[in-house]
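Q: My collaborator sent me two sequences in one message, no labels, and asked for predicted structures for both. Can we handle them in order? The first one she listed is below.
A: Yes, handling them in the order given. First sequence, followed by its structure tokens:
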Amino acid sequence: MVNRKELDPERSASAAFGALLRSLRDERGWTQDELAARMGCSGAHISAVETGRRWASADRALGTGDRLQRQSRAVTHKALLEGFPEYLTHEERAAEIRLYEVGVIPGLLQTPAYAATLEADAVRREAITQEQADERVALVERRQASLVRSPTPLLFAVLDEGCVLRPMGGPEIMAAQFDRLLEFAEQPNTVLQIAPFQMGERRPFSLPVTVLTLHDRSLMSYAESTQHGHLERNNALVLPLLTAYHQLQAEALSQAASVAMIKKLRKGIL
């Protein structure tokens, strides 16, 4: 096959995942474009997955049960908190994603350079290995790629003011990250808001939280402690979090005011 790139599944967990996807596709005699048509994405995206640069959920298109899903968990489990790999399987199918973050830009909105800077410090502190850092950075791109699906999910992001005030790397990294936030805010399926420090006690959350609405309108929430992530599926327990999230949005800056703040910060660092 012309321009068929050789894969090395031993290079990384992401490469192993890509090699498995190619093997399953080859077994069916499908081209990348044919698999892409079944998944609602592009052939270029499938190529990026097979070479370990992106991620995609293809079990339904390939009829492989949850084989690729389990493989993706193996890719991420060693580098992530317990509970988070399971959460990811729901995030990739959610109709609506509502997230609140404190201190750092959330993964779904990070640039690769920002993510790499964040993980490099964890390596310096010997909290994780370089291989784990590489997998975390690769996961940022795979999660963002999973949002490019049909129907397009709605994504609401409220960032504590500290997320945009905390410098990460040099001015160029932060400028690019601010550009990413501004691009995110322009999308038709997104809302971006900043929760300013002056909210004080009116801020309903003190820790990051994510609330998912699935296509059947059931709810899930995900929150983390230092060592563990907790996925809550009980609607009765998640509903108060959703109510609190709406209250958070009402008190936070509007998207227009949030965008103005980010533009001002970007102008001030270059």
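Q: And the one she listed second?
A: Here it is, processed independently of the first:
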Amino acid sequence: MADRYGSDVLGGDWRAPRRGRSVELAAERGTVVEDVETGWVGAVVRVEKAGGVHVVHLEDRRGRTKGFRLGPGFLVDGSPVTLTPPKAAAQARLDAARAASARTASGSVAVTGQRARVAGGSRIFVEGRHDAELVERVWGDDLRVEGVVVEMLDGVDDLAGAIRDFAPGPGRRMGVLVDHLVPGSKETRVVEEARRLQPWAPHVLVVGHPYVDVWQSVRPARLGMDAWPVIPRGTSWKHGICAHLGWPHATQADIAGAWRRILGSVRSWTDLEPELLGRVEELIDFVTAPAPG
């Protein structure tokens, strides 16, 4: 039977606008839209941010360009749309951000989706805790991928004994980083003796940097200085540095706090001096080189 009263006027989405509801549309270059308020019709040529607001620029068929605030109020083929920032640009920004974060603090290409390798036999030894923490901060990701562990010596006075205890050999190399390795120093004499130890010498690499302490390998600009100060003989170097910077230095806890501030200023390899960078890279290459066949 025919419905003599017609359909229910309240049935369906009776609130819907005559042209339909607006849908989101990315303002990709070349998309042709019409501004509802002015009737301006043009193709998207660019989207930019000005004064905190996204503006879309439309070029009409005569080559004239006009800017409009991105958002609702546009038509495409008579249907309402809300223009959003172009997906291509958003994706480009995302890709750039990913590329920027795809490197480790040491500058190496980051390896994703790979678990840390089980520690191998080779090791890198450093003098103390601060050395180890700095190496971990910059090269930690690389070392875990390679399965290399960093251990502390607590000084190098008995470096020869440490080499004998570790007993390096093929597939079990020993790299050592020494502070203040300069001609005529006590450290130089200790290292020269250790380098001659047999039968371990071929499997040991001892390198060093010229700094009194590993603190000094951090670029002074990171702490607001033009250069690290010269501390007079007879004054504890670390206490002298803290005094120069106006930091507390009466207790060991103060010194530990100072180091945390220095370490916290290191973001990547670019914040370290090349004399340290080169030596650590040399040690990593040595302990990760494949054993001769």
